[in-house]
Amino acid sequence: MRSKFRKAFDSLIEQPPLLFRLLFPEAMFRISGPRPRVFLTFDDGPIPEVTPWVLDVLDRYGIRATFFMVGDNVRKHPEVFEMVRQRGHAVGNHTMHHLQGAGCTTRRYIADVQQANALIGSHLFRPPHGWLRWAQAAALKRSYNLVMYDLITRDYSRRLTADDVVENVRRYARNGSIIVFHDSLKSWPRLQSALPRAIEWLLEQGYEFRTLQPRD
């Protein structure tokens, strides 16, 4: 069980505070509607070890999601990329090499995004780790819709169990939440139990699942 201090600290990651949202006013964090809805998203794929399983789970519940893909994974696994699209899911750009914006120049960052876009072909973009420089965001918003998140499940964390991941969904999900899971090997030990349980809980609460669409 996580300590109260750890839970308080982690909550700043799991649901970003208002100050962080104000740093990127052009970004999508939450899209509420007249009826309860959530936007399920997956980062870091596609990979053959995990992504097809995620697709099967989504099919089982009859829901669609948005996959933010690393361009190099699309290059290595084009058949998995096509599988995602053929099953009716939306796709987004997550850079070519999972670059962190704080660690590279704007020129290099934009070039990496464009390299990925040549393979992915989407106007949706999410920065790895949910962070990039203001100059990078300003350059990208001319061609892309910047997508952040309202709830990070932290399925990638070895400090958390599958129960913790599900509890994060139960605690922080709300109308319009953009929810982040990962179709990655790092998340797999928790994802295989947490994802179906989280979906079932959201359905029980009456949430509708929507895919993200580019804004005009």
Draw up the topology in text.
Blueprint: H1 4-14, H2 18-23, E1 37-43, H3 51-61, E2 66-69, H4 71-76, H5 78-86, E3 90-93, H6 106-120, E4 124-125, H7 134-140, E5 145-146, E6 151-152, H8 162-172, E7 178-182, H9 188-204, E8 208-210
Helix pairs in contact: 6-7, 8-9
Structure, described:
By secondary structure, the chain is an alpha/beta fold. It has a single domain, classed as Glycoside hydrolase/deacetylase (TIM Barrel). It is built from 9 helices and 8 strands. The strands form 2 sheets. Strands 1, 2, 3, 6, 7 and 8 form a 6-stranded parallel beta sheet that branches. Strand 4, helix 7 and strand 5 (145-146) form a beta-alpha-beta unit. The mean pLDDT is 93.
General shape: globular
Largest sheet: 6 strands, parallel
Element order, helices and strands? HHEHEHHEHEHEEHEHE
Instruction: Estimate the strand proportion.
Output: 5-15%
Q: Could you say how many structural domains there are in total?
A: 1
**Structural class label:** alpha/beta
The CATH topology turns out to be TIM Barrel
CATH architectural type: Alpha-Beta Barrel
Helix proportion range: 40-55%
Low-pLDDT residue intervals, each spanning 5 or more residues: none
Q: Write down the Rg.
A: 16 Å
The CATH class, by name, is Alpha Beta
**How many E-type strands?**
8
CATH superfamily: Glycoside hydrolase/deacetylase
Mean pLDDT: 93
Number of helices: 9
Query: What distance lies between the first and last C-alpha atoms, to the nearest angstrom?
Result: 45 Å
